[in-house]
Structure formats: structure tokens, C-alpha cells
């Protein structure tokens, strides 16, 4: 895309975090903004704020894990604005814990939002965008999917989240290649943020009632939530800075978008492990005190402390 002025953006997870910051930037750039979120009160506040910037705003409450609700969003966008130009499949939830301790409901919730929410967005909006490109020689579009550095790395005690984000990276890379087969006017990017202060650590509050657990969290899940909350809250890069990186990438037609490029050293090590057939490198090798803390707490919880 060469310009944002006069175009339409569809943004999921728009009530907070990256989605809200991107909505603000899109409005300031002269775009109409479709803001979708599962949390109605946060969405209403965010839509009022973005509308006050002078943008045409369409707020839409939905659960991206539900195909019918994303399809309804697509119909509403088409009716109000026509085909969108920028689609930001951004809604996501977090989860921690040992991978064998995740329940079926955990898997359904996290994969439903993080993976299927992106898949539904691609399935609903990309055909609409391709149709617009066929009809209008001046049409340009771009799709951005939010993954994570957890989609390029595999930190322990984050299994279901890692799986969901690796799948989003794969989906996005395939989307990029598939679009290149059929058009030069619709691009794709994947956002892989590291620890950035957003509302993801509070995502459990939006878990649907039918996917909530009656049992208490396991020790590994409590430890994972606490460690993630601490890491996210201490992040030095803001959601606003990341949102600007996203728009810069869209305008430059750049696929990979990183909040913390220095973290790519870990990605290189992982790929070298794969190519050299090495066992996976300790992800805490650069911060051994963190790995020692996690192992100590988990083994104490499991009743298997480190040998003296």
C-alpha cells in the first residue's frame, strides 16, 4: 500500500493494546476504522476515543473464534464501507503451564482465538479484497496477522500459546506466498512482538463461559501467568511504538515485523539446532537465573526438587 488516506481498516482486538494503538494511528492517517473486540465496554470507550479524532468508526462486538460472528463483521464492513484495504487480525489471548496440563477447554479457547480467529479473518476478508482488486485497478490492500516471538521460539511452560503462534506464522507465510500467486496488489505481514505491555495478561476474563474451567489452575499455570505478567509489564517498548512499526511495514510491503529485533538471536540459534540436528538449546542460556528460578519453582510444586 502506498497511502492510507481515504482507505478503510478492519482491526480486531481493537479495545486495547496493539489494536487500539493501530486504530488511533489509522484514524490520524485519515482512514475509516472498523473496531472489533470481544469486550463490549472497552470497545465502546475505544471507539468513542478514535471517533473523536475525526475518523468514521464502526464498532463491532464479536468473538473472533466464532466463524459466524466474523462473517457478520464482514457483511457489516461491506455494507458500510465496501472492501477494506487494511485487515489487522490481532485479537489474541495468553495461557501458560506445562503442555500436558492444558485441558481440552484450554486448547479450544487459545487455538480458537489465536489461530482460528486469524483464519476466519483471512477467509472472510481476503476474497472481498481480491474482488475489489479485480474491479478497481487502483485498489491496494494488506493483511497483518498478529503472531508473537513465541511463534518463532519455543519457551517452556507456554505450550498451547506457542503452538497457536507458530501456526499463525505458518498461516501468514502461506498467505503471503498464495497472494503472490494471484495478485501484486494485496500484501501480507506477520507481527511477532516480544514482551510489550498490553492487555493480554488479563485475557482470561474474556474466556467464554462454556470454555471456563471449574478446577483451579495447576501450579505450573499459576507460575506461568505470574512470570508472563511480570515480563509483559516490565516491557520497555510500548504498544504505540509497535503499532507504528506495523504501519511502516504495511507501507513498505515488509512481511516480518518485530518489536524487539535483538530477540532474533534466539531464532537463529533455534534454526541452527534444526539444521545441525542438535537437541533444542536451553532458551534461558542468556538469562540462566530465569531458567533456574522456573525449574526450582516447578520442581518444588511437583515434589521433585533439584538434587543437592
TrEMBL record:
Pfam families: adh_short. InterPro entries: NAD(P)-bd_dom_sf, SDR_fam. SUPFAM superfamilies: NAD(P)-binding Rossmann-fold domains. GO terms for molecular function: oxidoreductase activity. Keywords: NADP, Oxidoreductase. Belongs to the short-chain dehydrogenases/reductases (SDR) family. This is Short-chain dehydrogenase/reductase SDR.
